[in-house]
Amino acid sequence: MAVRPSVALRAPPKRFAAARYSTKPETTAEFDPNAITSMDKQQPPAPGEDFRVAIVGAGNINFGSDEGPWNHSFRLEHKLGPRLKVTALIDPSEQRAKQVLKTKCDSFVVSAYKDTVIYPNVEAYIASLKPEERPHAIWVGSPPAFRGRLEHGRDLEEVLAKGLPGVPLFVEKPVSTGPVDQAFAVAHKIEQTKTLVSVGYMLRYLKVVQKMKQILEENNLNVMAINARYIMAYEHTAKLDWWDKSQTLGPIVEQATHFCDLSRYFGGEADLSSVMAHSVEYFEPAGKLSKIPVDESRVAPENRIPRVTCATWKFDSGAVGSLTHAVALQGHNYSTELDVYADGHMLRLVDPYNAPILYFRRPGDDHEEIVRYQNDDPFFSEVSNFIDCIENGPGASPILSSYEDAVKTYALTWAIREASERSIKK
Ligand SMILES: NC(=O)c1ccc[n+]([C@@H]2O[C@H](COP(=O)([O-])OP(=O)(O)OC[C@H]3O[C@@H](n4cnc5c(N)ncnc54)[C@H](O)[C@@H]3O)[C@@H](O)[C@H]2O)c1
């Protein structure tokens, strides 16, 4: 078996992706636009000691789907190569877990999954764990209803902190569906235990987003306004739960969370007491949709999602933020854009999900410059950076979304949802 090199001999993390970004989320002084972030351009992963991962959730985010480019296991395979050993797959749906494992075991990545054990919950996994099988990372892509809280059954972070203290944790957004103060309490506990956590706000890892940060910082700009627009294509969204606020909390907390997060990334803290919002509800003439792919009558009227939410708020800096989210388009592609304004500057981030482009206007010039980077993969960058930090120590590569920071985004999304609900005319 190949001997794992010491940390000093290990290939430097700058080989990878956003590894050349600064270690602090607030600065991009080391942003390298030429860093390679696409998987097919990486050096093949070297053999070495096993890297054990326990995956929580056998669903779309961890194993892929037709809906989008997410698929954490695929990125882990390309980051770690033959070293990857998925020792546990934790999912109450044994059938779903078996299905994804079969697909993997029928493929060239069989060595990573041939010994994977399926568990119905983390408690069963921890109870059966031998010390030598302690994972190097836990990858959480279970529904947010089962985490980020204090009560039993929804306190995944607490169970892991007790059973597997100090094991680094990757957690998907949103961090919870429970009360915001409980999510802050979980963040506090994580901070106390100094556990390395990365939250899946992958858009922060986009090169165009890092370029925007760099422009703002290098020019010492005060952001004046941020305008986020997220128009989703609903025709193929066939999960009934997505249309049910009691299940997935609605499109602001579940989906527009990415743009609320980017707004905070560029604008700083939002003053939650300033949030105002209006919505278009299902029962209003403007809210009638003709191609909903599920039987919405199965969702209780009070839990049906808004078709449009328009919100405004102040940032602590004095800047203003606004968000328009709409469930309005048909077909497949969303229309998304986030504009940042500062004295003499306009930074327009267009289509960050599919073909990210930055349109950029400088002082003293009427023209918009265009910045785009080929083959950028923010999902790979967030996976790669997290593994680099586990292997080479915190700070080896920047982790751009901490747990506490992600809770602040969660709080903003709830403030928007609540403000819009207060303004509904029944
Ligand atoms: N960052 C992104 O772009 C992105 C994209 C998709 C999903 N997500 C997030 O990933 C998370 C999961 O979404 P998904 O689309 O994979 O959902 P999914 O429904 O496809 O899969 C969830 C899986 O978790 C399992 N599960 C249910 N309860 C569980 C529990 N207590 N413990 C372990 N597993 C449990 C389910 O059986 C299912 O297999 C959500 O928080 C979602 O918002 C993020």
UniProtKB/TrEMBL annotation:
Annotated InterPro entries: Gfo/Idh/MocA-like_OxRdtase_N (IPR000683), Gfo/Idh/MocA_Oxidoreductase (IPR052515), NAD(P)-bd_dom_sf (IPR036291), OxRdtase_put_C (IPR013944)
SUPFAM superfamilies xref list: Glyceraldehyde-3-phosphate dehydrogenase-like, C-terminal domain (SSF55347), NAD(P)-binding Rossmann-fold domains (SSF51735)
Region (Disordered): 21-48
UniProt GO MF annotations: nucleotide binding
Gene3D superfamilies the record matches: Dihydrodipicolinate Reductase, domain 2 (3.30.360.10), NAD(P)-binding Rossmann-like Domain (3.40.50.720)
Official protein name in the record: Gfo/Idh/MocA-like oxidoreductase N-terminal domain-containing protein
Domain Gfo/Idh/MocA-like oxidoreductase N-terminal: start-end pairs: 51-201
Domain Oxidoreductase putative C-terminal stretches: 204-345
